[in-house]
Design goal:
The structure is a single chain. By secondary structure, the chain is mostly beta strands. It has 1 helix and 18 strands. The protein has 3 domains: about 70 residues, no CATH class; about 30 residues, no CATH class; about 90 residues, no CATH class. A hairpin with an 8-residue loop joins strand 6 and strand 7.
Length: about 200
C-alpha cells in the first residue's frame, strides 16, 4: 500500500458494487473478483478474499466521511486447509499457506514461519530464534518494536508497522505464524485467531 493511495466505493443499500483506486490523482476501476466480498460497517469497508488457502482481510476507513477511504489494515490468516492426493489420502494443516498433492497417497503443507521466543525474568525479550528444517538461527532484535506472550500466543509488532501472531498449540516451545498484517497488533481480534486455529492445535 502506498501512502498516496486512496479508494472510493460505489455503495447502495449497504452493498458495494464498484471499487476505485486513486493514486497520484489518477482513478482506476478495480474488478470485484469471484470469491471476494465487501462488507460495509459504518465508515469502514471490509474486503475478504481467499488466495491459495490464505484468508486476506483488508479494512478501508473513511474517518472524516468525505467518501475517500484509506487502507487501515490488512490481515492474512492461515486457518488450515485440507487436500487430497491422487492416492486418496487427506491431509490437514494449520498455519499453512497452501496445500500441495505431491504424489499418490501423499500430501504436503507449507507452513507459516516458525520461531522460538525467549524472555527474561521481567518479561522483556531476550532472543528470537528462527526454526527451519530442524535448525535454529538467532534473529536481530532491532526489527522488533514489541513482543508479548499471551497464553499460547506471541504478539509481534515490528518497527515497519507490520505485526505477526504466532501460536504454540502443542506446547513444544515452537511457535507457528497464524496471522500477519499492518497496524496495531493490539487491535486484532485474538478470539477470532484462536477460534480459526483451534482445530489444528497439534500441528502448531
Amino acid at each position: 500500500m502506498s501512502a498516496n493511495e486512496l479508494y472510493r466505493f460505489s455503495i447502495a443499500n449497504g452493498t458495494v458494487s464498484g471499487v476505485f483506486e486513486i493514486e497520484h490523482g489518477r482513478v482506476k476501476a478495480k474488478a470485484i473478483k469471484p470469491g471476494t466480498t465487501y462488507t460495509v460497517q459504518g465508515n469502514q469497508v471490509i474486503k475478504t478474499e481467499i488466495k491459495k488457502g490464505v484468508q486476506k482481510v483488508t479494512v478501508y476507513d473513511d474517518s472524516d466521511g468525505d467518501g475517500y477511504y484509506v487502507e487501515l489494515s490488512h490481515v492474512n490468516t492461515w486457518p488450515g486447509t485440507s487436500g487430497t492426493g491422487s492416492g486418496g489420502v487427506t491431509g490437514t494443516g494449520a498455519g499453512n499457506r497452501a496445500g500441495t498433492a505431491t504424489g499418490p497417497g501423499t500430501f504436503r503443507t507449507s507452513y507459516g514461519s516458525q520461531k522460538q521466543f525467549q524472555f527474561n525474568a521481567d518479561g522483556t525479550l531476550q532472543a528470537v530464534l528462527e526454526v527451519k528444517n530442524g535448525w535454529t538461527k538467532a534473529e536481530s532484535l532491532w526489527q522488533y518494536r514489541s513482543v508479548e506472550a499471551i497464553d499460547d500466543l506471541v504478539l509481534v509488532q515490528k518497527i515497519t508497522g507490520k505485526w505477526e501472531i504466532y501460536r504454540d498449540g502443542n506446547g513444544d516451545g515452537v511457535y507457528t505464524e497464524v496471522a500477519e498484517g499492518y497496524g496495531d497488533v493490539h487491535a486484532v481480534d485474538l478470539t477470532g485467531i484462536v477460534s480459526a486455529t483451534n482445530a489444528n492445535l497439534s500441528l502448531l
